[in-house]
Structure formats: C-alpha cells, structure tokens
C-alpha cells in the first residue's frame, strides 16, 4: 500500500520502559515522565496540540473498526470522514473480541488493526487509540470478556486479580498501538486509558490513583509514548493534569441533547453547557480544551425510537448550535461520537441495544453520506483548516458588549489580528428568527457595528454563526464577514474565497483596501458594492442564485446559499493530513484529488449525473481531467475554472426475491425429541459460584452460564428428574438482559414462554407454569431456552454490572425436592474455547444448528426438508432454521447497499437471527423492535459469487409464528471510485468433532 515504505522509517527509536510489576506509584510516575520525554513529535500547550511543532485542530470522528468486519471497507469510511475535513479518528478496541479465552489474545483477520492503521495513513488521518481495557461503548460487557465474570477481584479497581486479568490484553494491544505511533511513522498521536473513570458507589474511595497509574503503566510498559488523554463524563476533575495520578491532557465528554429520539424536535431545557470555559481554566489551565467524546447521535434501546429519529434529534441544526458553542469555549481537540456507528453484528452489543449501531450519525450504517448533518460538518470542519487563528485565540465568556439584542448571545475569541464572534440564540433552542447587530473590533478601523448596508443580521431557528473580523485570506484582510467562511485558497494568479449564509439572510463582507477598476460581479446579481474609507463592502441577500464577485483585482468571492455550499469540496490528496489546493463543486462525494502537471484526477462517488466545477487549483492549462480513472471532456474558461459532467448511469442488476429462493429447513430444537442425548453437555455441578458480585446462589448448583464459560446469545438448559407424581407447578427465574425471552418445555410438551418486553424490570423474569399430571417413577426433562442479549456494561465502580449473570437464577418444582433436579447446560460449542477463530468468540450462540456449524456456508443441507423459508413458519412453539443460497453478480464500480428486511409484521412473539455467509448480522425481536431492516455490507455478502443465508426462527407462543415477509432491499446506489472490496474470511462448514 501507498505508505508501507514510510512505516519502515521510525522517526525516533521506541522507548521501552521495562515491565516490572508492583512498582510503587511514585516510581511509576517518574517512569512515565521519562517515557514522555522519549518523543517530541506530539506536544501541546494550553491552546492546542502540535504535531512536529505545528498546531493542529484535532477534528476527530469516532469509528469502531470492529463494528464493520470488512477490513477493506475501513478506508471507505475514513475517506468519507476525511472528505468532511476531519484530521483525526478516534477508535475503541473491544477486548472481549480479542481475548475471548483468557490468555489467548488474537488480533488477526477481521480483528487485525494493521489495515485500520494503513487506511488512516492513506486517508491522511491521525488516530486517537482508546484501548480501555474498559470502554463502555454499548458493547457486551463494556468490552470486558465474559470470563471476567469469574475474576476474583472487583472490576476497574486496583484489586490484583483484576489487574492481572488485564495484563495480557494490555501488553498485546499496547504493543500493537505502540508500533503504530507517529514516533514509528504510524498514525497514532494520542491514547486514552480507561474510559469515563467517573461514577462510583457511595462509600467507595474514589478516585483510586494507584489503579489509574497501573492501567496507564501497563500501556506505557508496552511502549506507548504519545500523550495520554482522559475522558471524564462530567468535569469532576478526578484525574487531571495535576492530580497525583495524572494524564497529559485533560478532557471530558458530553451528550447534551440526551437520547430521547421519540421526541426528535424537543431539545432539553438546559441542554446548552455554559460553564465549561471557567471549569477548564480551573481544572487544566495547562492543557488544550479537549472534548474527547461529544454527542454525534444517540444510542437506542430495544423498543426505542430507532436511528432515523435520532438522526433528526441530532441533526444539522443541533450541530450548528451545539458544536459552535464548543468552538466558543475553544475546543481544539473535538471528537464526535459516533461519526460512523456500524453494526453490532455477531452478538457484540450489550443488552440495551440491538443489531444496528447506526447512531443517527453523519455517516449511516450503510456508509452513506446523504444526511444533511454530514454536509453541515463539512462546512464546519473545513473552516478550521483555513482559520489557524482559532487555535491561538484568547477565550472570553459571552457578554452583551457585542450585540444590541439580548436574545442573541455572542462569544468572542480574539487574537491580535483575527477575531471570531460566535453568535447564538440566548435561549439556545429558540425557533424564532431574531434580528441583531454585531459589534466587531478591527485593527485598522476601530469598532464597527455591522451590518452597515442593512438594518440587521438575522439568526433563524436553531442556528448559530461564526462571524469574523480582521480575518486573513492570503494577502487580503477581511475587515469583517458576517457570512460564514467555508474555505479559501491563494493561488499564484488569484485568491478564491467561499462564504455562505442561510436562505434569505442579509450578509456583508468587507475587504481592506481600495476597490480596483476590474472589480465586478462576475456572476449573479443583487450584490451591493460600496467603497468606504479604506475598505470595500459587499452586501447581499442570500438566494439560491449564486453570486461571484471579483474585488481588488484578483480576489474571487463566492457568495453561496448554504445548500449550494454543501456541494463544494476541498478534497485531500491521498495520504496528506491537510487539504489539497483544489476547490471543487461536485455532488455526492469527492474522496481525493491529485494534481500532476496538466492532469487533474478526482476520485469520488455520484448518485446522479453531476456537473463538476473546479473553481480553484486546476492547472493553468489543463490537459486531462480524470474522474474515477476515466478521462472526461471539459471546458476551461479564462479565469481557469474547469467544468465537466460526470454521467451517472443507473446500474442494471437483479436481486433475488427471498420468497422465490429454494429454502431448506431443519428443526433447531432437537432437544425436544425423546431420543436426544445431552451426554456431551456441560454438567452444572458448581456448588458455589466464582461470581464474586452475585455470590448467593438460590439453586443447589450454580446455573449462571458465565460460570461455565457461556457468554453469547442462546443458552439452553436441561433439567432431569424422576417424577413422584405429586408435582404441580414449575417456577423459574431466568435472566438475559433487556428485552430477553425464555421458553420452557417438559419433554416435548411446551410449558410456556416469557416473551419479553423492553422495560427495565424485564431483564429477568419470574414465570410460574402449570404442569400436566406427571407419572410417578418416570423420567422427565425440562428444556429451557434463554436469549442472552449481551452482558451488561460496567459503568459504576465497583458495582460490577458486567458480572450480572445470565441463565437460570432460581426454580421451584412444586411437590418435588429442588436438589433432585440435575441440570446441564450449553451455550456456543466450546464456550470460551470457541471454534470459529475467523468470526471471533461472540458470533455463534448455543442453538443446535450453531453448535453444529450449520449457520456456516455450505452446511450439509442435503437431507433437510424443503421449505418456503421463514415465511412458512411454525404452527406451534419451537425453533427452526431455514437456509438457502443465492448468487449475486453485481456490476463493479457501484456501491449497492443491501439489507434484509422483515416486513408486514404482526404482534406475534418470535425471535429471529440472520446469518450471512456465517456471520450473524441481525437479531430480530418481532414484538419489541424497533429494528426490522438489517444492512449487510459487501465483503460479508459476496457481490460476485454465491452467498449462504440462514434464518433461525424461535416461535415463542402457542400457535407458533411465521415471518410474514422477508425481503432483500437496496439502499441508495452510487457510482463509486472506491477500489476493490475484499471478502472477509468466510470459512465453510466442516463437520465438528464432538458437536452435540
Ligand atoms: C459514553 C461512553 O464513554 C461511550 O462509551 C458510549 O457508551 C457513549 O457514552 C454513549 O454512546 S457515557 C456518557 C453517555 C455518560
């Protein structure tokens, strides 16, 4: 790959701090300082981070590579982020996926981070590494592997057993991160240990500095030398730059609009933070203002409003008002959680979520960039590329000094030259249109009240603006601009400036110096040009008709309506952190540009026939214009502007209709058959539980699945007993997390289900079932199926919620001694000795068909029954598995997002899982929702070959259940210049020794 050569050139030797366990805190602290001195590439002061001495706005996107298990798609996502103008990506690492079995760290194939580092370098993005070990992140266990349920120490504390449990992971992942640091030519510039070390139970002594030092030491020992950053949930200053255990850079997170996506137009009353500047000045006056996680969308629980609703609550207006408030405070490390959410495939999510982790983010789960919030961020992030003064401006609180209207609050950020004025509604969620005048300071002309050519500026509903004065555009000085700046570039023969405003707003911009005879309105109309003493003012009403004005000879100013500005791009060159010198109007997406002598080459995506217009940066006499490797006819005018058309041809392709596919089916609950043998199952024989957080068993032996190594999805229990004839009812308490369910059979007779709902009370269930008359002396067996929705996060210390068990907590067979039932259980085949190393430790659960590997491609379906597929369904409670395969042959050069959708659903209780080429890419709970459409990326789906599709259906109620409709859907199709997408490994079914 492009940069692999570079990687071999370490800029500085790595600093290895010897790994001696049990050092006292003070020596550790000393060692840390020593290690920090090993690198001088990433430095900082109170204003900003510096890379090789150069200040940089860390405009960062949160992305979790593990939520997109196709390594060759990582560059796609990162390019889309880079195209917005970001400079950095922050990523969590999920320990659970990498050390599913204690002592066996595995980061290969889809879990390999090397392709992610490569993609970051190729996209030109720095990385903030967040390895935990605790990450939260709505993943199962908050990133803690299931086996931590058995660790004899309190999680996230200094207990030796916990720290020892983390050591292997931290050493391995620490080394991987260390090798990818900028000191070794890699992209990693920052690292965050722990996560939101913050919430604790009363009585617990908090913070535990020694604990923090130990977490940090593990990573430092592995060779991490870049600065550490903290991510506090609230500005409590537990671990700061000056506490006994410390970080290099203090930072915090914030989700100010919350997560109530059911009311996507309602902003909470006190949603706008206003005390941050003061707090940060107290807490960490020596480190740059860092928002390590800032709301970019919202997570959603089962039964929630869904992510489209979240994308409305956390939309472009939210970004304008709330993010610009962060700039007012002076954030120069700004990470947006999530920018691309992805998918909780293969059971990696926690119980309070579901398969989609779209998050309502700027980039959709299908990697599409059509949300307006994506375009809005492109405007904001690009501004910082051309406004270096922002990074050094002095910060002040807002005051009434700057405006004549109390309904508007203006916060200044001031340097000797450039000044920024961030204006917002005083009542931050106002939907009114409010007039205001603004006072600006200028070096040359004193204080000015603007606008000067009209009565007022206007701030419309839920908007905020960054006005400027004494703003340098190359060798020109903008005395002021009320219109917001998107970008500018200075070329040898001209300077191009692009500004924008909202529909119908009046804006003004003043350029220092006298106008020249050449000044003209090059395009559009209704621009007032007025000469004042020492500067020229342009005034205009924003309209869809764009205006281009030439002033002072060679300054071309594009006055755009914001919607038009959305079509402009300042593409990067491959592997460059900055932007190129090209400014281009195009459509859907421009990924990169390369300028080579007289050739200009763009790589991008279009979803319609698109005019491209290069308004700056084209070679003076352009000879060749390439778009996605194809040369286009073009025109170049006397100003050097290049125009061309990219044709979009709708691709023609056919997708199969699920109902017409040939399906096979197999009983997925053979346990109900009289001759079924559970000889090979795990005997539940632990008289005590190793689970220190829930030590009091209510059953004669532990029935906690985690005690026996089963942590993922379906759990099945078998309880054998010989009846005495006096049994009447069966009480059972099952636990699987939010929206879980359980079903019970006695031999092959259905006894009842807890179908589940999305309330907090229903994370476990007490069920009492009537039994039929039992025959004295006959042997019976209960079969209990439980849906484990994923282990809990572990937010509060030392509450240990990760250890909340899954399985059977209690039971009572009325009329029968409790201890006279002998239990066995199973989860995924092998438990922590999971079989499928390629798809990882969580992908398969404990259903018969999963234990046999029938969810994998080319399962031995020969002797299975023919079926109509999931729409056939079951007439009584049970579990069935449907499998089919289909070929795809989709045209190359297109991004064709495919998803599977459950349609026409009714209220019947059933649960389903979708497997695509062996990857579980959807868990569907029909009666709870909200998700019914499940995107599956190319690379999991084979777009040029055969695909194996499997669906499990668990009918939970009398009368059974069927899937009313199951369809393949296509999302927004684009013609793309993105390269080849390689398949994730999809090893096929093999007979599994000892599978039961
Ligand atoms: C913050 C966590 O740091 C992050 O891991 C994720 O869980 C995020 O929330 C929500 O998606 S915690 C914050 C909401 C208090």
UniProtKB/TrEMBL annotation:
Annotated Beta-galactosidase domain residues: 390-568
InterPro entries in the cross-refs: Betagal_dom2, Betagal_dom2_sf, BetaGal_dom3, BetaGal_dom3_sf, BetaGal_jelly_roll_dom, Galactose-bd-like_sf, GH, Gly_Hdrlase_35_cat
Keywords: Carbohydrate metabolism, Disulfide bond, Glycoprotein, Glycosidase, Hydrolase, Polysaccharide degradation, Secreted, Signal
UniProt KW Glycoprotein keyword: yes
Transmembrane segments: none
A GO BP annotation: polysaccharide catabolic process
Catalysed reaction, written as an equation: Hydrolysis of terminal non-reducing beta-D-galactose residues in beta-D-galactosides
Enzyme class: hydrolase
Gene3D superfamilies per record: Beta-galactosidase, domain 2, Beta-galactosidase, domain 3, Galactose-binding domain-like, Glycosidases
Protein location: Secreted
Main location group: secreted
Entry EC number(s): 3.2.1.23
Cellular component annotations (GO), alphabetically ordered: extracellular region
One Pfam family here: BetaGal_dom3
Signal peptide per UniProt: 1-22
Alphabetized GO MF terms: beta-galactosidase activity
Record-stated family: Belongs to the glycosyl hydrolase 35 family.
Protein name per UniProt: Beta-galactosidase
High-level lineage: Eukaryota, Fungi, Dikarya, Ascomycota, Pezizomycotina
């Amino acid at each position: 790959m492009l940069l692999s050569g570079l990687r071999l050139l370490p800029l500085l030797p790595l600093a290895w701090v010897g790994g001696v366990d049990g050092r006292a805190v003070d020596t550790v602290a000393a060692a840390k300082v020593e290690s920090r001195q090993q690198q001088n590439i990433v430095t900082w002061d109170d204003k900003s981070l510096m890379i090789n001495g150069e200040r940089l706005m860390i405009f960062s996107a949160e992305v979790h590579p593990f939520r997109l298990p196709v390594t060759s798609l990582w560059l796609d996502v990162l390019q889309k982020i880079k195209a917005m103008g970001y400079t950095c990506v922050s990523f969590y690492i999920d320990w659970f996926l990498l050390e599913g079995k204690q002592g066996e760290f595995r980061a290969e194939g889809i879990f390999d981070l090397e392709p992610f580092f490569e993609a970051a370098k190729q996209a030109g993005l720095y990385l903030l590494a967040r390895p935990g070990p605790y990450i939260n992140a709505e993943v199962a266990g908050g990133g803690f592997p299931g086996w931590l349920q058995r660790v004899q120490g309190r999680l996230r504390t200094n207990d030796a057993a916990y720290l020892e449990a983390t050591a292997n992971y931290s050493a391995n992942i620490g080394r991987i991160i260390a090798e990818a640091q900028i000191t070794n030519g890699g992209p990693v510039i920052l690292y965050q240990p722990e996560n939101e070390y913050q919430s604790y139970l009363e009585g617990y002594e908090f913070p535990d500095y020694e604990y923090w030092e130990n977490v940090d030491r593990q990573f430092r020992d592995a060779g991490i030398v870049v600065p550490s950053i903290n991510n506090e949930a609230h500005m409590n200053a537990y671990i700061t730059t000056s506490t006994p255990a410390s970080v290099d850079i203090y930072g915090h997170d914030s989700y100010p609009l919350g997560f109530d996506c059911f009311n996507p137009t309602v902003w909470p009353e006190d949603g706008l933070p206003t005390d941050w500047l003061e707090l940060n000045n107290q807490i960490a006056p020596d480190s740059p203002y860092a928002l390590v996680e800032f709301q970019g969308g919202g997570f959603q629980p089962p039964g929630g409003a869904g992510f489209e609703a979240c994308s409305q609550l956390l939309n472009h207006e939210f970004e304008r008002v709330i993010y610009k408030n962060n700039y007012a405070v002076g954030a120069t490390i700004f990470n947006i959680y999530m920018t691309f959410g992805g998918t909780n495939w293969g059971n990696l999510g926690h119980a309070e979520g579901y398969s989609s982790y779209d998050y309502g983010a700027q980039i959709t789960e299908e990697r599409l960039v059509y949300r307006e919030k994506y375009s809005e961020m492109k405007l904001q992030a690009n501004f910082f590329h051309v406004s270096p003064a922002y990074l050094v401006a002095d910060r002040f609180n807002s005051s009434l000094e700057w405006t004549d209207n109390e309904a508007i609050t203006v916060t200044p950020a001031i340097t000797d030259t450039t000044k920024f004025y961030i204006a917002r509604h005083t009542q931050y969620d106002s939907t009114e249109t409010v007039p205001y005048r603004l006072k600006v300071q200028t070096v040359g002309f004193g204080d000015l009240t603007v606008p000067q050519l009209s009565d007022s500026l206007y701030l419309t509903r839920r908007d905020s603006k960054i006005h400027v004065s004494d703003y340098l555009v190359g060798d020109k000085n903008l005395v002021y601009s009320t219109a917001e700046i998107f970008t500018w570039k200075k070329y040898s023969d001209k300077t191009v400036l692009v500004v924008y405003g909202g529909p119908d707003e009046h804006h003004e911009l003043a350029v220092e110096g006298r106008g020249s005879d050449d000044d003209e309105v090059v395009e559009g109309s209704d621009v007032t040009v007025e000469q004042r003493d020492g500067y020229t003012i342009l005034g205009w009403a924003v309209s869809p008709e764009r205006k281009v004005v030439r002033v002072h000879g060679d300054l071309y100013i594009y006055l755009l309506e914001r919607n038009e500005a959305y079509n402009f791009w300042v593409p990067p060159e491959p592997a460059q952190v900055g932007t190129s010198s090209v400014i281009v109007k195009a459509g859907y997406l421009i990924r990169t540009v390369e300028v080579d002598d007289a050739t200009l080459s763009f790589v991008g995506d279009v979803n319609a026939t698109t005019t491209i217009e290069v308004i700056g940066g084209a070679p003076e006499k352009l000879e060749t214009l390439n778009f996605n490797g194809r040369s286009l006819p073009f025109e170049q005018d006397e100003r050097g502007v290049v125009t061309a058309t990219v044709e979009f041809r709708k691709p023609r392709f056919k997708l199969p209709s699920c109902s017409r596919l040939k399906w096979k089916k197999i009983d997925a609950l053979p346990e109900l058959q009289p001759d079924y043998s559970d000889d090979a199952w795990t005997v539940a024989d632990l008289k005590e539980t190793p689970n220190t957080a829930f030590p009091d068993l209510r059953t004669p032996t532990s029935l906690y699945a985690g005690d026996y190594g089963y942590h993922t999805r379906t759990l099945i229990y078998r309880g054998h007993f010989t009846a005495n004839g006096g049994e009447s009812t069966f009480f059972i308490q099952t636990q699987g997390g939010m929206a879980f369910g359980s079903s019970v059979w006695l031999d092959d007779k259905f006894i009842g289900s807890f179908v589940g709902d999305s309330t907090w009370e229903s994370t476990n269930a007490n069920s009492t079932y009537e039994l039929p008359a039992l025959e004295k002396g006959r042997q019976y067996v209960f079969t209990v199926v439980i849906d484990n929705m994923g282990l809990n996060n572990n937010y509060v210390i030392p509450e240990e919620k990760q250890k909340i068990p899954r399985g059977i907590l209690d039971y009572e067979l009325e009329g029968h001694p409790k201890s006279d039932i002998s239990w066995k259980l199973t989860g995924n085949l092998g438990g922590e000795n999971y079989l499928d190393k390629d798809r990882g430790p969580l992908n398969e659960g404990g259903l018969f068909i999963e234990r046999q590997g029938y969810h994998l491609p080319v399962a031995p379906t020969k002797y299975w029954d023919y079926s109509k597929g999931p729409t056939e369904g079951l007439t009584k409670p049970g579990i069935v598995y449907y499998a089919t395969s289909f070929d795809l042959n989709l045209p190359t050069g297109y991004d064709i997002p495919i998803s599977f959708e459950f349609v026409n659903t009714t209220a019947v209780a059933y649960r389903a899982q979708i497997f695509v080429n062996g990857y579980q890419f959807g868990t569907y709970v029909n009666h709870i929702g909200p998700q019914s459409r499940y995107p599956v990326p190319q690379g999991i789906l084979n777009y040029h070959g055969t695909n194996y599709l499997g669906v499990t259906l668990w009918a939970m109620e009398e009368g059974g259940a069927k899937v009313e409709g199951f369809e393949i859907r296509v999302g927004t199709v684009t013609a793309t210049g993105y390269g080849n997408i390689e398949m994730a490994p999809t090893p096929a079914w093999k007979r599994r020794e000892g599978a039961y």
